[in-house]
Amino acid sequence: MKFKYQARTKEGELQVGVVEAGSREAAANILAGHDLFVLSVESAEKPFWLEGIFSYFGRVKGKDMVVFVRQLATLLEARLPLNSALKTLYNQTGHTILREAVFQMAEDIDAGLSFSQAMERQGNVFPQFYIEMIKAAEITGNLNEIMGFLADYSEKESILMSKAKSAMVYPAIVIFLFLVVAFIMVSFVFPQIAPVFEQSDVQLPIYTRILLGSGTFLGKWWPALILGVFFLGVLALDWSRTPEGKSIIDDAKIKLPILNKIFLPVVMTRFSDATALLIHGGIPIAQALEVIGHMIGNVLYRDIFHDIAESVRRGETLSQSVAKYPDYFPPLVSQMMAVGERTGTIEQVMKRLAGFYSREADSVINNLVDLIQPVLMIGIGVLVAFMFASILIPLYSLTSTLR
After folding, report:
1. DSSP, res 283
2. For the chain, does the N or the C end have fewer beta carbons within 10 angstroms?
3. Please, what's the largest Cα pairwise distance for the chain?
4. Is residue 231 within a helix (H) or strand (E), and if so which, with residue range?
5. Alpha-carbon distance values, 202 to 14, 93, 252, 339, 391 (Å)
6. Closest CA to 229 of 188, 179, 191
7. What is the rounded (10 degree) CA torsion for 227, 231, 233, 236?
8. Residue 48: which pLDDT band, with cuts at 50, 70 and 90?
9. What is the dihedral of CA 377, 379, 380, 381, to 10 degrees?
């Protein structure tokens, strides 16, 4: 269970945070073990859907996380001890949640926990990807190098995501405004014309009857419809956080045509980058695959990498094991791996694959930016034409009969 607490340090500084424990008494004992004077301990458990909403709005933004990781990597490269680096960043971090997480990690490391254990206790702030990479760094002893990798990778991913979001801002605004205008026209304007058709006994086309019927329904029941959409959204959020929901969503990201073009290059980039780094650090390939499976951020890939690791332990080559999953790894990946295994240059091959798929992800995003606007304009134009044709064609027929 999670408990919110308020406590003061020996210096009298107020500290607020969340601690995991089996009971309120156990939480108080944990805090006391960190030399904190406990002021209050309350349950932080919320209904599942409410927790999802709070976690969404209370999350650390990607920009803040990128700055934190880059600063930590820089301090470690300057040979500053980890705990001192974290305490320095605590004084410089402006984001409240991230600042509290950094403070708690420094306290946990002082208490004897490893960096990965301290970060894992702040799993609501830091991605699992970071935690798994830190675990690998502790095994190989190259924390500075892996923090530099995380900083570079986080910056590249942040740039890619900002491009994707920027590409969606204009279409989202246009679609929203169209829906608002269409709702007003269909619900309140077009129904005012319906009595004219009823009095003139004009035979209305099926699409006009559907449009007018929809407008009458929306005009009467729009508050209930909005409420229903809200609750459906809450249920969908709940479902997406279940193991079954995560599995279906992660599978859709890889198998649906358009999503596949976006997510597969990103996954391959992360996989190739991490594999090259872990091999360079001297981690056995089977163990590296287990680590990568947890850091990819996709439950299906986690299971697939576990199976691949087991195949490697049984004596199969990495390229042969990867080739068994053509839906999840493009043929180029296994073919390039086979070349690297024959020539003893698997690390260099994985770096080349990472560069290739990183460029492909950039290309896909840029192409979507160029393509989405004309497609959107055509789609909205067709819908507007349908709406007004549904009214203008019967009006033309009415004026023709009156002549």
Report:
1. -
2. C
3. 93
4. helix 206-240
5. 76, 70, 47, 74, 12
6. 179
7. -160
8. very low
9. 80
Question: CB of 147 within 8 A of CB of 131?
Answer: no
DSSP secondary structure of 77-140: HTT--HHHHHHHHHHH---HHHHHHHHHHHHHHHTT--HHHHHHTTTTTS-HHHHHHHHHHHHH
The H or E element spanning position 6 is strand 2-8
- Rounded to whole angstroms, the Cα distance separating 191 from 188 reads 6
- Give SS3 for 47: coil
Assess contact for 24 and 18: CB atoms under 8 A. no
Run of H or E residues at 2: strand 2-8
Distances (CA, A) of 174 to 258, 369, 378, 379, 386: 21, 14, 12, 11, 18
Query: What's the CA gap between 189 and 180, in Å, rounded?
Result: 13
CA dihedral 159, 160, 164, 165 (to 10 degrees): -30
Report the candidate in 163, 136, 109 with the shortest Cα–Cα distance to residue 372.
163
Task: Output DSSP code: residue 61.
Answer: P
Mind listing the pLDDT tens digit for each residue in 325-356? 988 899 999 999 999 999 988 889 999 998 89
pTM of the prediction? 0.66
> When comparing pLDDT for 402 and 368, which is higher?
368
Residue 192: which residues within 8 A CB-CB, separation 6 or more?
none
| Sequence-separated (6 or more) residues with CB below 8 Å from residue 210 | none
Q: What is the pLDDT of residues 195-208, one digit of tens each?
A: 777 777 667 778 77
